[in-house]
Structure prediction request, 448 residues.
Amino acid sequence: MLLTNEQLAEQLAKCTHLQGDKLIVHNLTYLQSTYIDSLIYTAVFSPEETVKTKSRQLITKIAETLGIYAASIYPLYQAIGRGEISGFTVPAMNIRALTYDTASVIFQLASQQDIGALVFEIARSEIEYTDQRPEEYTAAVLAAAIKTGYTGPVFLQGDHFQLSKTKYTADPEQEIEKVKSLTREAIEAQFFNIDIDASTLVDLTLPSLTAQQENNYEVTALLTNYIRSLEPKHATISIGGEIGHIGGKNSTVAEFQAFMEGYLSIIPENGISKVSVQTGTSHGGIPLADGKIADVQLDFAVLKDIGKAAREQYGIGGAVQHGASTLPNELFHKFQEAGTLEVHLATGFQNIVYDTMPKQLREEMYAWVMKNCQKEKEADWNDEQFVYKTRKKALGQFKKRLWDLRTEEKELIRQKLAEQFQFLFEQLRVHDTKKHISAYVHQANKPD
Prediction:
């Protein structure tokens, strides 16, 4: 239910009180069973901005009281880069719909299995079409941790803070400023992990690898310095770079080395903690005319070789895989075996939501796509391919309708999501990783 400003205070008093200037939770059952549901709903949907802002602030304050706080994964990735830890691949999960419910499913599994190495992320493009600004995304994830009793660091990440090559070519300063503005907003919302994607600026027509990567490493370095100027005193923000645009040519060790040498000539220390590479995937998968997703020839050697070079030559965590959630399930164990540092997962969870939601709502969302997204339809797509590739654009328009689904309707979606998350966590071997978070991340990120 939506709460008024007065109701926020009334219900808060039922479960918390002040002891001096310290907030104390005295009724955790009421907080988790009732208040947090209303608080996050108000934080997302209140028509009054002041009430929405206050609700988000209360969520952060309650979370910190319970030992839940946004953090940087940088210390863990540094330890991996030094060879002190290995044996798992961190899942970075883009939640495009039902963020509170989905994050609750993840935290429940994490609590049951001592999983600490988890990243919640949202990309520059997703922020727009899912209608989730960073501050709202943070509130939903932290509220889910409160709801489920999860404690400890929570890793929030800005994914694919990407520059448009067309816009950069037309006006570099303006495009860089847009990414800076979003980065500033994200850090203010406690996103202490930021992935810079200037791989769109790589020019493969140039004669040398250094020249090809020059715009990429220079812009990545520029944005690295900007991020460092904004980071809080208690956390070194984890920054990711990218050398191969997803859906394009597969990356090589030599390209990675050219990028790193150029980057390190500008940022000799305290730079990126990981690098995203292209291995043969594409975001969302490639839908075929018969409705199936095309098989992908994913080159795990790219991840293994670049990851090895990243750790041994440069002391950073390793290589990152994007666009993986629609891959066949039988491939996922190979990420950990290849020493992949992090794998980004998004569309597969969106597909579960669409496949499991009530038919009438799905048809309404598809009708909206058919009406509003025709400009994005490619000439060789049939209607089924078109809807599959563009239905993500309906998620923001129908955000409240999804949130307002009946309990039993959402529970079906939650069950399907839980099955997939459980499978992925097993394949990526993140069980029992909370001990590593406690050892490397907890003290380094503890808020003052």
About this structure: The first strand starts at residue 16 and ends at 19. The chain has a mean pLDDT of 94.
